[in-house]
Every structure is written in C-alpha cells, then in structure tokens.
Amino acid sequence: MSEPEGSTSNSRLRYAVDETPSVPLTLGLSLQVVILVLTGIVLIPIIILNAANYPEGLEWAVFSALIVSGLATILQARPAGPIGAGYPLYMGTSGAFIGVSTVAVAVGGLSLLGTLVVASSLVQFLFSARLSFFRRLITPTVGGTVVMLLAVNVFPITTDLLAGVPAGVDPGAASGPLVAFAAFAAITLVSLFARRASRLWAPLIGIIVGTAVAAPAGMLNPTPVIDAAWFGFPGTGWPGLDLSFDARFFGALVPFVIVTVIGAIETYGDAVTIQRVSHRNPGPLDFKVVQRALNADGVGNLLSGLAGTVPNTTYSSSIPIADLTGVASRRVALYTGVIIVLTAFVPKLPALLQVVPDPVVGAYAFIFVTLLFRQGVRMVTTGGFGYEKGLIVCVSFWMGLGFQSGVLFPDHLPEWSRGVLDNGMAAGGIVAMVLTLLVSIRQRGHRDILEPSVRSISKLRVALDRASARAGWDETATNRLQLAGEEAFLYLLERQSGSVPHPIRVAARPVDDVLQIEFVSGPDDANLEDHLSRLDEDHEVLRDVGPRILRHVSKEVRHEQFYDLDVLTVTVDTRPLA
Question: How would DSSP label each residue in 140-175?
Fold first, then answer.
C-alpha cells in the first residue's frame, strides 16, 4: 500500500482536527455534509432491495442503515479506546456491496444478508490487528484489480435500472431513456465544468434534474412520501439472522469477505489521506490511527449485520469535504453523525429518495460504476505500471472475467468451488493475491534476526554487503549503505535501552535502482521520521549526531508504527553525496 507524500504547512486549513469552530458554523457545515452523504446512504439499500425484488424489507433497511452510519461516524470522530480514528471520516452504506448484497437478499432476504455481513466484518478486525503483515499482501494492485471486476459485476444491475419504468408507462416510449439521459448529463456536466467545491453536489443535482424531467412523463409515484410519517419507526421489524449456515451462506461468504477487504483498503487510504489534510503542519503518518479507523469500520459493519441492513464503509468524500471547506474539525463529524441518526426517525426524508424513478437511479449507479472502475485503474497504476504489476492485473482481471462468464473450464471445476469462482470479483481477487504473494516471496530476500546488542553490527554489515554485491554497487555506495544501516540500527538500540529488548529483524532488498533496508522491531512511542524532520529546529549540531548522519546519507527514511511492531525503512541510492 502506498500513501501520498508528506506536505508542508496546510495554509488553507481554517480549523484543524483538534480545533473547535463555533456552534452555528458547526451546525451549518454538518447540515451540508448530511445532505451530501444522505443520498448515498439511502439510495444504496433502495438499489439493492429493488434489484433483489424484496420491497418488504426496504423501510427497515433504510432506517437501520441511517442509524448505523450515524453511529459509525460518531465513533470515528470520538474514538472509544482502539476503535475510531479521531478524524472527520463520514460513514455510509457502501456501493461496493451492491452485487453481492443483491444476490444474498434475493436468495435469503435480509436475515441472510445480516449473517454474511456479521461474518465478513470480523475480517476487518483481523486486517486491522495484523495490518503490518497484510500491507504487503493486500496491495493497491490487488485492491484495484478487484475494484475493476467489482464494477463489471455491478454493471448488469445498472442496465436493468436504466431500462425500468413504472407501471402504466409504455416500456417502448422514449420517456425512460430521456429521463436517464437528463440525469446522466446533469451529473456529468456538473462534474466536468463546475467549480471544484460544487462537484461534490453533482449526484444530488443529477437526481433532482432527472426527477424533474420524469414528472411530466408520469414516471413519479408520490405514494411513499404521502404515506410516510413525519416522525416514527419503520412498519416492519428486525429481520433477525439466518443461522442455518447452509450452501447459500458458504457460497456467498468468500465474495463478501473479498469486498469487505476492498472496503478496508479504501478505509486505509482514507485514514492515511485525512491525516494529511487535517493538520496545519502534517507530520509522519500514524498507522495506529489507520488501525483504529479500520476497527471503527469493522464495528460499523458488525452493527449493520446485527441490524439486518447493508454494509457501510468510510466515504472518500470525507477528504474533499475537509480540503475544500478548510474545516477538518472532528466536532463537525460528531454533529453530522448525530443528525444522520435523527434523520432515521423522520421517514419523510428517506421516502423522498424512494420516489426517484429507476432510470434516474440507474444513471446515478452508472456514474458510480464508471467512477468505481476509474478508482480501480488509479489504484493499480499507483507508483507506476511495470511488467510484474501489469502481469498481475491483466491475468487476474481476465481470469476473473472468464470464470464469471463461465468460459474457463466450467465442466471441470469441483462443485464446492462454484459459488466462489462463479463470481468474477472473488476469482480475480484470489488470483491477484496468489500472484502478489509469489512476487513478494521472490522480492523479500534473506532476512536476518539481530540481537539487540552492538555486537550484532558485524552481522548487519555482512547482510548489507551481501545485498550490495547482488545489486552490483561499488565500494563508495556500499560504504554509504553500511553507514545508513548502522546508524538506523543504533537508533533502534538506543530506543530499547529503557525497556525490554526485542530482537530486530533486518532485510535489504533492491527496489528499482535503490536499496531498501527494512528493520522490524518492537513498538515504540517515538517516531524517527518525525525526529529527522525537526533536526533543523535544534541548532546544537553535536546533538543527535547519528540521526543527522542518517538523514545525510539516506535518500528516504520511513518509520511506520503499528500497535504490534514498528517498521523502519531506510532507502539508499548510489548518488554522490552533496
């Protein structure tokens, strides 16, 4: 996984994450955010249940989705122990689950959906707890490939919505395509030509325009709004959980788990980026924040499953909202979460979106699918698109598509694998993870375990000499590599002096035209990357000589801190020293 490069002072920020805007400003911004995210929170359950022909569960699914989304947003803003990022990350129903959730509801109703969501949510807690390990296996390459296949998987649902017209309207008339085109054109034009801040409103504007065009064509049915109460609870109750654990459950479990992992990757990226835009002077990334955000995401999905509604995830719009408004205060997110919860008890508001005609919803979903595919392409091209990455993406994508289309040896697959491999997203995701694991094993190289003692420096030198020889470096570059490695190792030793010492694992591997030395040690409170960035503030040159030497001879130093361990990566190249 990769993250954006650090930046300097964030001059556009009006209120940082820890700062408190006035109550009127907070309320005004919170109401804007609610209007912005409410469309997605409500429309996703409507799309899923209508596609599954399960209208009897719609009221409950929307009601509980609003409550869970609001509570999860509050939890992200106000953490409870290791759960919650402490940043303005807005939570809502996830369109990534449209395909798998539609299948689950169609064959087992909301009770089966709830059981699958509960089971798959547990993966997010595992992903968070072992983030230091999974960061090498579940990469943007894997995630992007699955996201592209996810878009392909959802596309047939979109086309069905585009062709849908209410009873009493001639299916062959041009009114349906005209309404869909109006919504599509409005969303596209706003996205292309509006000011940057206005682009966030493109989906809502498109829905309003499409619905307005649908009114004269007789495609609006105001009954849901008329029948809905101003305040109250849904007419249907909790659907319960399906605990039969039959073939329907196990056939859908793997696709659910894979989409859940993709949602976790998205939350990972959001939790990384929100740290960059929420501080006036951003420092090194805090991966403990990322782990807490993933835990809150897992709690949100767990609650969604127990409540019997569709899963939720972190909305990527959290970042542009904070960036464009200049307000990253967690207080705004807290108020937003409370308002979303209260909205669940005002049935008239979500009922407004039930009136939206299918062609308009289809246009919204079509834009969503295309942007989803774009997100997948962006993920797989992060950091370049070399031979190995291209091979993983292309082989995985076409194998996933082949399995889903039933053209890859359908008569020779074992019966137990049909429920998994018939889903292109699951099949392609498995292939991508296997290929990534093989490449990772090949690139990992030899790993040495160093005892926390200066006596281990000689063993470190041997390991670095071995890596330098494989890379074909000359003596000058090798000496610089040795110096960087020794200073990093001595820093880790010094940090362990006041605590129980832990063995330090070290590996040196070539990456393009540089060498990376990776030290894995026990968790530490201090961050070397942050320390190096602040050395210029200390004018006593003789202080922190080791870190100053390390900063001078290395190209980059990254210190990633997790709850279970620290990963210190020192990158050295062959350039002449300045």
Answer: HHHHHHHHHHHHHHHHHHHHHHHH---TTS-TTSSH
**Rounded CA separation 171/162 (Å):** 11
What is the rounded average pLDDT of the residues 142-149?
79
477 in Cβ contact with 494 (< 8 Å): no
H or E segment and range at residue 521: strand 514-521
User: Three-class SS of residue 6?
Assistant: coil
% of the chain at pLDDT higher than 90: 22
Question: Residue 369 and residue 505: Cα distance in Å, rounded?
Answer: 43
DSSP string, 257-319: HHHHHHHHHHHHHHHHHHHHHSSSS--S--HHHHHHHHHHHHHHHHHHHHHTS--EEE-TTHH
Query: Could you read off the pLDDT of 382-401 as tens digits, one per residue?
Result: 667 777 788 888 898 888 88
What is d(CA 289, CA 323) in angstroms, rounded to the nearest whole number? 19
The C-alpha atoms of residue 562 and residue 570 are separated, in whole angstroms, by 17
Has residue 210 got a pLDDT over 80?
Answer: yes
Residue type, 129: A
Dist CA 144 CA 99 (whole Å): 17
CA 252 to chain centre: 21
Half-sphere exposure of residue 440: CA atoms within 13 angstroms, side-chain side: 16
Is the per-residue pLDDT at 537 higher than 60? Answer: no
Helices (H), 472-542: 475-495, 528-533
Q: How far is it, in rounded angstroms, from Cα 465 to Cα 445?
A: 14
Identify the three-state secondary structure at position 525: coil
Residues 6+ apart with CB under 8 A from 289: 85, 86, 87, 271, 275
- The one-letter amino acid at 240: G
Per-residue model confidence (pLDDT) at position 417: 56
- Angular region, 113: left φ>0, alpha ψ -120 to 50, beta rest: alpha
How do residues 461-476 score in pLDDT, each as one tens digit? Answer: 999 999 888 888 888 8
The string of DSSP codes covering 218-254 is T----HHHHHS-SS---SS----------HHHHHHHH
Residue closest to 155 by CA, chosen among 102, 209, 81, 232: 102
Q: Which residues pair with 557 in a beta bridge?
A: 570
Contact 420, 427 (CB under 8 A): yes
Beta partners for 517?
508, 570
Residue 323 in tokens:
């960036």
3-state secondary structure 53-93: CCHHHHHHHHHHHHHHHHHHHHHHHCCECCECCCCCCCEEE
pTM of the model: 0.76
Strand pairing partners for 561? 566
* SS3 assignment, position 124: helix
Q: How far apart are CA 433 and CA 138, in angstroms?
A: 7
pLDDT at 1: 45
Separation between Cα atoms, residue 95 and residue 42, nearest integer Å: 11
Number of H helices, E strands in the chain: 21, 7
Q: How far is CA 68 from the centre of its chain?
A: 18
